[in-house]
Amino acid sequence: GAVVSQHPSRVICKSGTSVKIECRSLDFQATTMFWYRQFPKQSLMLMATSNEGSKATYEQGVEKDKFLINHASLTLSTLTVTSAHPEDSSFYICSARDVQALKETQYFGPGTRLLVL
Amino acid sequence: SQQGEEDPQALSIQEGENATMNCSYKTSINNLQWYRQNSGRGLVHLILIRSNEREKHSGRLRVTLDTSKKSSSLLITASRAADTASYFCATDHTGANSKLTFGKGITLSVRP
User: Fold this and answer.
1) Which residues 10-49 of B have a C-beta within 8 angstroms of A?
2) Is the Cβ pair B105, A111 closer than 8 Å?
3) Chain B: closest CA distance from residue A4 (Å)
4) pLDDT digits (tens, 9 = 90+) for A28-48
5) What gap in Å lies between CA A109 and CA A33, rounded to an integer?
6) How far apart (Å, rounded) are the C-alpha atoms in residues A24 and B102?
7) What tens digit of pLDDT does each residue of B44-89 get?
8) How many CB atoms lie within 10 A of CB B47?
9) Which of B43, B50, B101 sits opposite A93 (nearest CB)?
10) If I label B20, which of A64, B14, B34, B40 is the partner at 20 to 30 A Cα–Cα?
11) How far apart are CA B50 and CA B53, in angstroms?
């Protein structure tokens, strides 16, 4: 089946630094990728929709200047958490939609756990 | 909010028993999906049911959808300890451009 990878799987950083998370579709092309955030024992909240070759669409309440998204190719989207603070500590999960499959099919990555000290 | 709501929030059963989890939503959907998440891990897609379908089966899983009541149920038959996980329903709402809205999740514990 389709595989989505994320790197790194976990990262610890100091407050004020920036962290980049990569999301890759390994065996299919994805024109659209989605970025979610999940706090402990809570649900996934959609942060933004990443579109290849165009600007990301952010959900209400998500700061686009803080969470920079770049979808430079059909297999890679990156999320950069700029000037990270402890409240940004969370589990970040991406998903990708296979451009050749049914529109409704999304494949999820294994997630990236971010801890900001 | 369009967010789906599952119930119960937590369910503890004995191995071999059936587990039934429910999900309700508020606006019309294209499809509804169920996912499993083991602690600290990513999501595993279990099953998708479209708005024009009423029931689907996949192995030990049975999903029903009642669009008139805006609700769905996930039944896991003959549960195993390995089924212990959090389960989420996610709705693809009409006009939402394939964005998924996740429910709060149900924590299932299956005792060996």
Assistant:
1) 30-31, 35, 40-45, 48
2) no
3) 10
4) 888 889 999 999 888 999 999
5) 11
6) 22
7) 999 999 999 999 999 999 999 999 999 999 999 999 999 999 999 9
8) 16
9) B43
10) B40
11) 5
